[in-house]
Amino acid sequence: MTRAAIALTSLALGLAGVVLIGDQRAWDNALSSPQTLLIVLVGMGQLARLAGHPMLARLLLVCALAPLMLALSSYLLPEYWISLATWDSLAHRFLPGSLLDDWRPALLATLSLALLAVNAWLGERPNLGSPLLLGTVALLLVIQGLESLPNATAHQVLRYAASPTQQLTQWGLLLAQGLAFLPIGYAERHNLHRPLWPALALVGVTLLFWHQQKALEDRTLRAEVHAQGQQLAGHTTHEFKEHVAAMHRFANSWNLLDSAPTVEQWALQTAPYYRDFRYFLNIAFINLDSRVIRVYPVQPNLQVLGARLFDVQPEGREALSQALFHGRVGRTGVVELLQGGPGIIHYLPVTSADDGRILGAAAMVVSLPVLMGTFFDEVDTGRMFLELRQGETTLVQLGPTTGLGPWQHQASLDVAGQSLTLVTRPSRALLLERRARLPVVGLATGLTLAYLLYLVLYAYRRLALQHRALHRSNIELRHEVQARAKLQQEIEWLARHDELTALPNRRLFMETLKAQAERRPLSVLICDVDHFKQVNDHQGHLIGDRYLKSLSEVGREIVEEAGGLFARYGGEEFVACLPACDAHSSLAVAERLRERMQEENLLHHDGRQLTVSIGLATLEDGPLDIAALMQAADEALYQAKASGRDRVVCASGDASLETRR
Ligand SMILES: Nc1nc2c(ncn2[C@@H]2O[C@H](COP(=O)(O)OP(=O)(O)OP(=O)(O)O)[C@@H](O)[C@H]2O)c(=O)[nH]1
């Protein structure tokens, strides 16, 4: 898998290299393709790590991560913290003439590359979020693919997606990291489900939320541009109405004359209007021959003095005729002015105060470029493109023509009866400056939260599994302890009991006897089954065993009644310890034992009754010598056997104590 991952990474790197070489600008200046360079750095870091050079890998990845983090900050930080101009001047310092946007990768590409670099740094460590990082990069790449569709990119202020080839190289790096991750154990992979899916779902929700926020913010920005355009258009129309009204006032004031004005009179009369309405190119007096005989200001308009307008400006003839011959206000359309540039000329008839004779016409020349410059002096024309059109003809253009934003606004203007169109289009820089940071901040926060959620769920899952394993081994341990305790009990029981009859064995009997060192009188008896070998021989061992069990039950009952202990001594021999029993009472116990055993009606093969012989010894006082006491009982038993069996013999030698059937 590692080999396949290395091969895939190399392939992606090769592709990135081809992109870099293919980009002609990259030869002129290595910094012209920073996004591809960053992909190459991340890829090389990944390759170094896969090939087993962690130090080199980290060095390369840090080199990629530092600019990526800087780019991410430029997307995140508010304009009033670090302005776009500051970022641009920073970019300019690195490479004169460059802007921030020439340097930083597209937003989603910045994120996916940073996550790829972080994951390459961490290695295939599910506990550090490797699978979530890979899943998030996959989602980011899918969204980049969608964002690259032509209709999605049409109206974007920010760049969101890398170029298709760059996306392909990122897919290559991602798949290589995925391959390197695959060899983790099945159990580990199985454990990933619970933390991974909720965290990935949060990533998905975050991306959807970001997309929605981004669309909303774009709409708001567009509405702002629209409102500004409308405002400018309204302002222009209003100003022009004011201008026309002022012009009428101007014309009326000339009715007080009775001849063509002198140069001084003309200057005195026109100067305030010229000053107040800054967009007049000049105000001229035209005589009845359509000649310009007075003009204010004189100096910049010398070339029009003496010009016969009917000849030099035929397109204004109609308007001028209105004023000169019919005494009505005449207004040209948009005409090419004698001084150059488009403009509108108002011709106002000047009549004699005495007889109402028409003396000439006052021409108020409005230059459209000057008008635009005057009206829009509050607009930042360094970053806002303005265009005045009449139909399809461009009359005036202000502001930059390159680096413009994706939206423009068109508004209709009524300028002195002329229907014009005002186009406003903010530059991309202006829109970027106004761009709200909320969607990107939301995206970064959501992705961070998803990562933290993964880590918490993963740790919780691990703890839960460990806890479960511990609980299971605890139960097993408890069962083991219980089994061992039971075994121990069995062993202890077997060490002191006989398995066949469940009676105390010789060891327990001896321990009990020893414990009676102070009790006097103390009697012991040995009970031996007569001719038991014959039972085994003729009726088999199973019958023999059954007989032994019956006898032991009887013996236990009788001896325990007397406060003693009945035990199996070995073979078909039983013993009893009778504390506080003197010779008489122990003899009575022994006799009852013998009789009761007979009453069990256990028969030999030939119908004879099974009998027992009992030897009895009593220690009335004095120290306990177990061997001597047992020896005495044994000898008494021997005597009982020797003297015909089926009897009790007491070791005292007292004949009166001997019983027989
Ligand atoms: N079925 C069975 N037989 C046992 C057991 N322990 C000992 N025996 C038998 O008990 C018999 C004891 O025989 P002997 O010692 O010759 O004595 P006896 O036949 O009882 O004759 P006397 O004691 O002289 O009356 C042997 O045949 C043993 O095999 C046992 O646990 N089960």
From TrEMBL:
EC number(s) recorded for this UniProt protein: 2.7.7.65
Source taxon at top rank: Bacteria
CDD domains the record matches: GGDEF (cd01949)
Key word Transferase present: no
SUPFAM superfamilies according to UniProt: Nucleotide cyclase
Transmembrane segments: 59-77, 440-460
Protein name: diguanylate cyclase
Domain (GGDEF) ranges: 520-653
Uppermost EC category: transferase
Signal peptide from the UniProt entry: none
UniProt keywords, alphabetically: Membrane, Transmembrane, Transmembrane helix
Reactions this protein catalyses: 2 GTP = 3',3'-c-di-GMP + 2 diphosphate
NCBIfam families noted in UniProt: GGDEF
Sequence ranges assigned to domain CHASE in this UniProt record: 292-372
